[in-house]
Amino acid sequence: MHSSSRFLCLLGLVSVALAQSTNQAGYNPRIGPSNANCTRQNYQLEITSNNMVFQNVDSNANTFIGSGANVCNNFVMYVYNDHLSTGLSEHPNDTYNVVQASTDLAIATKLLDMLKHGEIGGQQFDKVIGIGHSYGSVQIQALSATVPQMLDAVLLQGFSMNGHLLTSGAYSPATEVFPDRFNQSGLPSTYLTTLAPQTQQLNFWFFPYYSDAAFDHNRKTEQPVTQGVLFTQGGLMQNATSFTGPVHVVTGANDWPFCFNDCYAVPANSTYTSIPEYVQELYPVTSNFSVYIPENTGHAVNAHYSAPDVYQEMLAFVSNVFGA
C-alpha cells in the first residue's frame, strides 16, 4: 500500500442537470484527460439500513449498492463518484425508500472511510478535500458535519443556505421527456428530468453567458433524478459544529436554485453582503471561511464562459490547503 501526502476527493460532482446520461442512453465513459493516468474502479458497497431513513425495510438487512469511481493518480489523486441512480451506478426501482438523500450520504460516508483506509486506489492520504456541486455540495456539507474528522477542507460550488426544491424545473418522467433515450432503459416513472429546454435554462443557465453548443450538449445528456432525492435533499444540511478546516463557497452571481437569480439580494440590515456568506453560520469553528461569486454565471457554473476563471480560483483554494 502506497502513502501519499496529498489527496483531492471530488465527491458529488454529478448534478441534476449536468451529469452524463446512463450507459443505455449514451453515457460517456471518458474518465479523465489522457495525461491523468485514470482508471475506472467499481465497488460493491455494503451499507446497513440502520444508517439510513428506510421505510418498510428490515433494519437488520444489508443493502448492496454498486458505486463507481474514476481514480486519477497523477501529482494529486482525484476520485469522482456517480451517485446511486446516476451514471454507471445502480438504478434501483424503489425511488422513495432506497434512492433518497440519506442513502446517498451513507454511501458517501462509506466511500470516504474507504479512502481514508487505503481501500480505493491502494493508497492512504494525509489530506482529503471534499468538493461538491449543487446536490453534491449538500452531501459534502453534511459529511463535514457528521464525520468532520475525515475531511481537511470543503469546497462547496453552487451552494447556499437558501436552496429550494426546483419546482420551476417542472420535473417530469424521463421516459416521457426523452423517450428516444430512456424508453428502453427500464426506469420507472419516478426518474425525472426537467420538462423542457426552457425549464432547464431557467434553473441552471444565465443567458447569454454560455454557448449554444454547451447548452445543446447538456440538454441531450441530462441525467434523471429521483423523486426521493428531490424531496429529501434539504434534510441533509446541518450545523458543522466540530469542523475546524477551511470552507470555501463558489456560487454564480445569477444562481437560480440557491440565490433566486441574485446572490446579492440580502436584507438591508444584514451583516452579510451576499447570500452565500450565510453559509458561515453552519461553521462556527472553521479556521477560515471564504466566498467567491463569479459574475454573469448561473447554477451550471461549469458550463458558463466564466468556468476557466472559476477553476483557477478553486484550484488556488485547493493549493493553499495542500500547502498549509
TrEMBL record:
SUPFAM superfamilies: alpha/beta-Hydrolases (SSF53474). InterPro entries: AB_hydrolase_fold. Keywords: Signal. The keyword Signal applies. Residues 1-19 form the signal peptide. It comes from the Eukaryota. The keyword Signal applies. This is Alpha/beta-hydrolase. It comes from Neolentinus lepideus HHB14362 ss-1. The lineage of its organism: Eukaryota, Fungi, Dikarya, Basidiomycota, Agaricomycotina.
